[in-house]
Specification:
This protein has helices at 2-8, 74-87, 118-131, 145-158, 184-199, 208-217, 222-230, 245-257, 261-265, 286-296, 320-323, 325-337; strands spanning 16-17, 34-39, 44-49, 58-63, 93-99, 139-143, 171-175, 232-235, 238-241, 272-278, 307-313. The chain is of the alpha/beta class. Helix 3 packs across helix 4 and helix 5 packs antiparallel against helix 8. Belongs to the peptidase S33 family.
Length: 338
């Protein structure tokens, strides 16, 4: 988690816009990987490509987890875009790192109506696609809570909930996220304790150091405490959260209660759902792993249905993109190319 916080604070060359019609304040020097951040009426997002001057012909959306933001996935997304370009130069992939409602830069954007749940978070993404007049993504990637947002997005695409123009993604990646309801005995109990603790902190918060020291005094690990501190931003003489805490708590409740097993049991025609379990993650019950293994053995995509694949990422805890980035790239890259 400490490395994840370090990733999140890394600098990048980017353009920052507050709507799709306002020109950037300044033009940065081009970087080896092209990053573009925009604030739009629906959601804030960042685009990453391996070649800034090459038009993209493939798109992948990336959804972060609870209390996170798209920036947590910059390093991995850059690596993935670069690796894909090396192996398949004829294709230029665009990675769109979305800040989900109430998180990251999207927390600063007004107009997200309750209920703050997984379904509405997915609908926000569909609204983003429509508002920017984009083609629908080829691949959707979601980590933790973002995995369920990705599942809901694809499920809604398959059922025509976003309109007739929708094109179903070819692949859906669910990274260390349980597809069904989440048992508090498996991973979510610590999250609940963190949310309860943050809810009880005084307002205003004096400094990042005070928050980190306070979390440590309550028995939370140094890595977790520092990651929590990395989600604070300066506000005058005090600091405040880069997420809407009350709304995030609502989203966590929705994450625990939503169930997408029917989608995995009967994936839409032409879709592959790839589920990645982190080997050292505490979020998986044995019966869930058995069910995923059984679904993955059903076979290839048929004329009637898509397929499910199941992967175990070795030497990794819940923060898959930080704990074993190379291993995750080795799992995902060949599947992207296929």
């Amino acid at each position: 988690m400490a490395r994840r916080a370090l990733e999140a604070s890394s600098s990048l060359s980017s353009r920052l816009l507050f709507s799709s019609t306002i020109a950037p304040l300044s033009k940065p020097n081009p970087s080896p990987l092209h990053d573009l951040i925009r604030h739009v009426q629906t959601l804030a997002y960042e685009e990453i490509q391996a070649s800034p001057d090459k038009p993209f012909n493939r798109t992948a959306f990336v959804f972060h987890g609870l209390l996170g933001s798209g920036r947590n996935w910059r390093t991995f997304s850059r690596s993935l875009a670069s690796e894909l370009q090396k192996r398949s130069p004829e294709n230029e992939w665009r990675m769109v790192l979305v800040d989900l409602r109430n998180h990251g830069r999207s927390a600063e954007i007004k107009g997200f109506e309750p209920p703050h749940n997984i379904s509405n978070a997915a609908k926000d993404v569909a609204n983003l696609v429509k508002s920017q007049n984009w083609a629908w993504p080829d691949v959707v990637i979601g980590h933790s809570m973002g995995g369920k947002v990705a599942l809901d997005f694809v499920n809604s695409c398959a059922h025509g909930d976003y309109g007739q123009s929708v094109v179903l993604p070819k692949q859906l990646w669910v990274l260390d996220s349980v597809p069904g309801d989440v048992n508090s005995d498996y991973g979510s109990d610590e999250v609940e304790k963190v949310l309860h603790t943050l809810k009880g902190l005084p307002s205003p918060l004096t400094s990042r150091k005070w928050v980190v020291d306070h979390m440590l005094s309550l028995g939370f690990s140094k890595a977790l405490s520092e990651w929590i501190g990395s989600n604070l931003k300066k506000l005058g003489e005090t600091v405040t959260w880069s997420f809407d805490l009350d709304a995030a708590i609502d989203m966590f409740t929705s994450y625990r209660e939503t169930n997408y097993w029917p989608l995995l049991e009967h994936p839409p025609k032409g879709l592959e759902i790839a589920v990645v379990q982190a080997e050292n993650s505490d979020r998986w019950q044995p019966n869930i792993l058995q069910k995923l293994e059984a679904l993955s053995k059903k076979g290839q995509i048929s004329h009637e249905e898509g397929k499910v694949s199941f992967h175990v990422l070795p030497n990794a805890g819940h923060w898959v993109h930080v704990d074993n980035r190379k291993g995750l790239l080795e799992i995902m890259t060949p599947n992207f190319l296929s």
